[in-house]
Design goal:
There is one protein chain. By secondary structure, the chain is α/β, with parallel strands linked by helices. The protein has two domains: about 5-315, ABC transporter type 1, transmembrane domain (ABC transporter transmembrane region fold, Up-down Bundle); about 340-575, Rossmann fold, CATH 3.40.50. It has 20 helices and ten strands. Helix 8 (about 170-205) runs antiparallel to helix 10 (about 215-270), helix 8 (about 170-205) crosses helix 11 and helix 15 crosses helix 17 (about 475-490). The chain is elongated, with a radius of gyration of 35 Å. The model has no long low-confidence stretch (mean pLDDT about 85).
């Protein structure tokens, strides 16, 4: 059965639908009552109406049996509709809760967790929980109610035969205990394999063009086959265990039916039981074991749902590595004291990225953070917007630690544009509105102009309302980067961080875009991370990183004269751009 905590968690999730659940239970209750009447009518039909040749009474009984069947079917149908409604609302609420939680979790979770794994929890696991959760109350009540009513009717018809059948019922509990741990283990294994296979498929579909260019289609397909075979093996073992459980339960049911038929036939021959009484007793006996069988099937299915519940609960209780515990908010559109980075160290995936960084960034300063690949530039940028927290040291903004500010306020004040920004399938206008839902068309056109995209926009068939398609494939890499920068400009921020966001641009366009940004918001603090040092000689200051440490700071002339590493990087950049 579900662990106690899992069951309580499921009840809490279903509690908002309690009125629907009550309605479903009423449908099941009345259906159960209707189901206990027709065997008695069948007994009267066989033992009384037919032997006497009373056609009118026989037709009345037949009509009553039909009415009972129709009423039972109608009530079950209504109950199934209620269950469907409960499941749909539960699916909606769980998916919203999971999506909200994923929006809370820090960047490290999303970088380390495959998209397919997240999708499996939001889609398959939630479907399992909601669909069976909606049925659990009804099926449980149905099993108890049918068992009690039908057992009472059996005892009323023939108590000795009922007492003969009852000893078989404890066997169900024995079978349940024997299969309990095995069903749970198999369900967990199968669900985990599904998550791995779904993650691989999602990754493959997103990378098909690159797989084709690498000529790795066969290797990728082989990997997919291996993962799917592992998933199929786990699901086959789970299903085989469930079938073994069902067959064991079925064997007990067959034994019970044989006992009923053997004893009943002997009593009919001896004249102590009528044929109608045997038919009615047989009907009740199958129905008294049917809810037990249903309960055992529900138990087996709950093991699968238990695996899904544990996966969903695990995600919902996961705490973000970057805690949003701050209470301060910014009230000024520009910085007055800037950033102060004190002895900051940081590791990423077990590798030291930054060591004892000491740096001040003044309000309104144009700062370029440069260095060779792997020197820690992007790690430092991530720390400035609290995409991660330092392992040691502290970053101050306006002389307050970053953790004192709410994340929402910090990230509105310090805008960050990564090298590979995400653009959505909607139109250009819809993508821009992510930056500021209140932006007007005029605001959007100004930001488009600032990033040198106006000629591109004019060439598009529907301007701002042009759909971008999946991954904005209709735009070049540089156009995607500039559109992301334009999106960040739509809401005035005190600081803007560009992390290799102009890497796909040619030198003239890059210089034009950066100069335009500097002119558009003269009081805005601008932090640019780039390998294209030769395009950044206009900045106020460079911060040169080397293997995670600050090697030097200063303007272009100073560093070119004093730093051999800077000269090497600058000359290499200038050579690449010519």
């Amino acid at each position: 059965m579900l662990a106690g905590s899992d069951f309580r968690w499921l009840l809490d999730r279903l509690e908002p639908m309690r009125m629907r659940i009550v309605l479903g239970l009423l449908c099941v209750s009345f259906a159960g009552i209707a189901a206990t009447i027709d065997p008695l009518m069948m007994r009267s039909l066989i033992d009384r109406a037919l032997p006497r040749g009373d056609l009118r009474f026989a037709m009345e009984l037949a009509g009553g049996i039909g009415l009972c069947y129709f009423g039972r079917s109608a009530l079950y149908t209504m109950g199934s509709l209620v269950n469907f409604s409960i499941a749909q609302h539960c699916i909606r609420d769980l998916r919203i809760a999971l999506l909200d939680q994923m929006n809370r979790l820090s960047a490290d979770y999303h970088e380390q967790t495959p998209t397919g794994e997240k999708l499996t929890r939001i889609e398959r696991d939630v479907d399992e929980i909601a669909n069976l959760g909606a049925e659990t109350a009804n099926q449980s009540l149905r099993a108890v109610l049918f068992f009690v009513l039908n057992l009472a009717m059996m005892a009323r018809l023939n108590l000795p035969m009922t007492l003969t059948v009852l000893p078989l019922m404890p066997l169900f509990a024995i079978i349940q205990r024997r299969f309990s741990a095995l069903l749970k283990t198999r369900a967990d294994e199968a669900r985990n394999e599904v998550g791995v296979a779904t993650s691989m498929l999602n990754e493959h579909l997103a990378a098909v063009p690159q797989i084709q260019l690498l000529g790795a289609g066969e290797r990728s397909a082989h990997q997919a086959r291996s993962l799917w075979e592992g998933m199929l093996r786990a699901q086959w073992v789970q299903r085989r265990t469930q079938v073994g459980f069902s067959l064991s339960i079925g064997a007990i049911l067959v034994a019970a039916i044989l006992v009923v038929l053997a004893l009943g036939s002997a009593k009919v021959v001896a004249g102590t039981l009528t044929i109608g009484g045997l038919v009615a007793f047989y009907a009740y006996s199958t129905r008294v074991f049917d809810p037990i069988n249903s309960a055992m099937d529900l138990y087996a299915r709950l093991q699968t749902v238990g695996a899904s519940i544990r996966r969903v609960r695990e995600l919902l209780v996961l705490e973000p590595s970057v805690r949003d515990t701050g209470t301060m908010r910014f009230s000024s559109p520009q910085l007055h004291r800037g950033f102060r980075i004190e002895n900051v160290s940081f590791s990423y995936r077990g590798k030291h990225a930054l060591r004892d960084i000491m740096l001040r960034i003044d309000p309104g300063e144009r700062l370029a953070i440069i260095g060779a690949s792997g020197s820690g530039k992007s790690s430092l940028a991530r720390l400035l917007v609290r995409a991660a927290d330092p392992e040691a040291g502290c970053i101050f903004l306006e002389e307050h630690p970053l953790a004192c500010y709410t994340l929402a306020s910090l990230r509105e004040t310090v805008r960050f544009v990564p090298q590979h920004p995400v653009l959505f399938q909607g139109t250009i206008r819809e993508n821009l509105l992510y930056g500021n839902p209140l932006a007007t068309t005029a605001d959007m056109l100004r930001s488009i102009e600032a990033v040198q995209l106006a000629p591109v926009l004019r060439a598009l068939p529907h301007g701002l309302d042009t759909p971008l398609g999946p991954g904005a494939a209709g735009l070049s890499g540089g156009e995607r980067q500039r559109l992301a920068i334009a999106r960040s400009l739509l809401k005035e921020s005190a600081a803007l961080i560009l992390d290799e966001t102009t890497s796909a641009l040619d030198a003239p366009t890059e210089c034009a875009v950066l100069a335009s940004l500097a002119e558009l918001r003269p009081c805005q603090t601008l932090i640019v991370i780039s390998h294209h040092i030769s395009s950044l000689t206009w900045v106020d200051r460079f911060a040169l990183l080397d293997q995670g440490s600050i090697a030097a700071t200063g303007n272009h002339s100073m560093l070119y004269a004093q730093s051999a590493l800077y000269r090497t990087l600058f000359d290499s950049s200038a050579h690449e751009r010519t």
